Protein: Polysaccharide export protein
Organism: Flavobacterium hungaricum
Amino acid sequence: MKKLAALLVIALCFCSCKTQNLLVSKTETNDKQYFEYDNNYQYKIRRDDKISISVWGEDNLSVGSVYGIYNSNEVYGKWLMVDTNGTIEMPKIGTINVLGKTIPEVKEMLKTGLKKWLVNPIVDVKVLNKEIIVLGEVRNPNTVAIDKDHVSLLEMISKTGGFEFYANLKSVKILRQEGENVRVTNLDLTLGDNIVYRNIQLHPGDIVIVPSKKNKDFDKRIATIIPLTTTISAAAIIMGVL
């Protein structure tokens, strides 16, 4: 009887044990937590962004102008890069801090500075490196360049050719950089009762991961925040777990 009792205790211990996921939050999270649609969202300029500036009729004041002969082209380096201090160097105006500014805010800053030389400057600003990465079980996993701020998940999936046959639509992940941390949400695209939940708004810099059905289901209790990392490194961690 003593041996039988000992075996039962050992069995119970094994049943209660669970492999600890380093990314799992100790607090239970809501499986339906997702990035809510924000109608007022505007992209804010970040360090290392590549920016073209166009001043109508003033090629000498433009860098990668969309108006004149110096067309913006990321490949050939016709752009300004936001440095580690969040600044760029603009002809005549000099150093400008653009970190965390929206495109309309930067336009107004440039217009104000250029009014010393131009009566009514017409300025256009474009961020050349806005993109969303789609990984996993889609037909063409890729980095997709985008021009607009409001992009939907299904729009991005369509740009990569759609889902593959083995795509696990119950466990699609979205990674988003927020400061030094990465926020993660898990989506079940098979739910038919809430289109807003299934077709969420993506932001430039987001990473979409579509896992495979043949792999084990990803732990839905994953922490909604992965601290002190980037979306690229967080994606590598998650892809390794899947």
